[in-house]
Amino acid sequence: MWVLLRSGYPLRILLSLRGEWMGRRGLPRSLVPGPPRRRYRKEALPALEVPVLPVTATEIRQYLRARGIPFQDGHSCLRALSPFVRASQLKDQTSATTSFSLFINKTTGRFLCMTSLAEGSWEDFQASVEGRGDGDREGVLLSEAPEAEDSEEVRRIWDRAIPLWELPEPKEAQLARVMFGLTKVTDDTLRHFSVRYLRPARSLVFPWFSPGSMGLRGLKLLGAEGQGDGVHYVETTIPRPGAYHNLFGLPLISRRDAEVVLTSRELDSLALNQSTGLPTLALPRGTSCLPPALLPYLEQFRRIVLWLGDDLRSWEAAKLFARKLNPKRCSLVRPGDQQPRPLEALNRGLNLSRILRSALPAWHKSIVSFRQLREEVLGELSNVEQVAGVRWSRFPDLNRLLKGHRKGELTVFTGDPLGNHCLGSVFTPPAGPTGSGKTTFISEYALDLCTQGVNTLWGSFEISNVRLARIMLTQFALGRLEDQLDKYDEWADRFEDLPLYFMTFHGQQSIRTVIDTMQHAVYVYDICHVVIDNLQFMMGHEQLSTDRIAAQDYIVGAFRKFATDNSCHVTLVIHPRKEDDDKELQTASIFGSAKASQEADNVLILQDRKLVTGPGKRYLQVSKNRFDGDTGVFPLEFNKSSLTFSIPPKSKARLKKIKDDNGLVVKKPSSGKKGAVPQNSETCLGEARNPYQPDPSKPSR
Q: What pairing do the DSSP bridges indicate for beta strands 569-573 and 529-533?
């Protein structure tokens, strides 16, 4: 069995609560002043198990026919007669359509019974049908009820919150409407969606009602704080985001509704429903993820319009979500000046119905003309910074060269084979071409992006996940936790809320197995970045040299195809071939044939020795950049206490100096004297003699 280990999802903290108006009663306990409290759960996030041979839609259909279970083909699910519904419940069903209450996902095989709320994997379903286990009786397949602690917290907050129009002071109500942009949203709309306001936290409260009943299952608290000329919204969900599967507005959907508009925020759903009268639903995690568990609730709609926001990231998320929902029934609202997000469009007096009518179909044939692409080209020209991707916060020089981290690209990363001092005492590097700090650097490189909301999947074939998580947690906390174990729970809780997942593979693996796992993770968790460390460990070493090179070319091509087809960035760590000690690594130093560097969009090399003046220092060379062609090299400093690479002062000047000298790496002088370096290079390196270490007291992004 394969298991994807989950590290949670980003937790956004409510705006700071100060003054006498902050009370302990009625607020989430995590927001009450005092030391952080570890919340222990029996099974916080159950591990997701995937069969070695993923089930296909054809196999599911064949199984249902063989067992005599009638079913109907849907958009993303198969709808079948539920074996979990008792005969007495079937008599209450009014039609054949409503009796088909079992939904089986065509991609994963997971099922959900709308009537009994039983759910589980494809193996669970087979075991129940074949009588190998009574999951319904044992409570194995039943949907998990909210924890008692969460239920108590939800009820306390909900009872304390009041409707916005019942606030005793009109000025307070008006201020709240202005902060949340609700000046044109009526009280009837707020009442229709059961929206309340929590005065102590100055937050809107959106309820999560259980399907089929009005039982309160969870809440989302939305706070607002000023940020320059605009407003920044912060969210807190109960239960935590990983278990919060609320399609806001679902209880208001009728069985006869055939069209729905999906938004990324609850405020946008309010504006759309009020302006157009159409059914609207808000996704629980915005543009970050569309959990497959929500797909059964969207099966009834023949047309789905995705209006997720006003930036390029929202547009990319809409195209990704349309793949899950079946693009043939999806239409997308393209962001633009005259097509902002719904709430802003309502406040500006725009015609929201007209904008919906201009939505573009998500599905088209394999061949298109420029007429169909011209709007996308205009969008990229109008949003240059967003097209460049997510920028690193810890590596500003990397932003100057690569401009950002973009979906659909392949990055090949290699490093000098010598120098075992980088990892300190975290683990002892094995013999051979390892130990240069490649894993340590690439873990911080990926962690930087993960803290900014880039859903990340790690495939570590060389070191264990426990060892890797220890390195990343130390980098996240910017200091060793061995000497401050009393703070471990605080940092572990924050680290757990990152959108970070691990594959449990180790050593040699089949490329087909790894690709299937990656595709599953992209579908279930909307993974945007996959790190493979490293290629040689995944391949094994028992093959002949000629076969190994051919096998590596095939694997690189498979990763290239995966990145393009799934709009997912793949970072591939490859060890270099053995070079002479007096030579710097180049693009041609990557082990194998030239296919790796040819297929790659970016090539990063962690350099050592020639450009370094002392132990613990490295230079990162960008030797290929397909996005805009900028290449260069910049210095790194290794901080042993935090296991992080930081950029020394004046790195910008040295980056420009090295590029102006047209020397990405220091070459041997033409005089032929060993060890001699140009004068300008000595000057550059001299500027890096004062090491810079990040302040562990500063919080990590």
A: parallel
- Tokens in use for 473? 């947690």
473 and 491 Cβ atoms separated by less than 8 Å? yes
pTM: 0.70
The string of DSSP letters for 630-673 reads --EEEEEEEETTTTEEEPPTTHHHHHHHHHHTT-SSPPPPTT--
The whole-number average pLDDT for the span 410-427 is 58
Does the structure show a pLDDT above 80 at 164? yes
The sheet with strand 569-573 has its strands ordered as 48-50, 2-6, 500-503, 456-460, 529-533, 569-573, 410-415, 602-607, 617-625, 632-639, 644-646
pLDDT tens-place string over residues 486-525: 899 999 988 998 999 999 887 788 888 899 999 999 999 9
Q: How far apart are CA 667 and CA 91, in angstroms?
A: 83
Q: Please name which of 125, 138, 153 lies closest in space to residue 63, comparing C-alpha atoms.
A: 125
Q: How confident is the model at residue 691 (pLDDT cuts 50, 70, 90)?
A: very low
Tell me the angle at which helices 679-686 and 651-660 cross, rounded to the nearest 10 degrees.
Answer: 170
The pLDDT value recorded for residue 372 is 64
Q: Is 318 a residue whose pLDDT tops 80?
A: yes
- Decide which of 278 and 614 is more confident: 278
Q: Which residues pair with 549 in a beta bridge?
A: none
Tell me phi and psi for residue 500, to 5 degrees.
Answer: -120, 130
DSSP β-ladder status, 644-646 and 632-639: antiparallel
What phi-psi label fits residue 349: left (phi over 0), alpha (psi between -120 and 50 degrees) or beta?
left
Pairing of strands 71-73, 602-607: unpaired
| Helix or strand holding residue 6 (H, E) | strand 2-6
The sheet that has 102-105: what strands, in order across it? 71-73, 77-80, 102-105, 111-113, 119-120
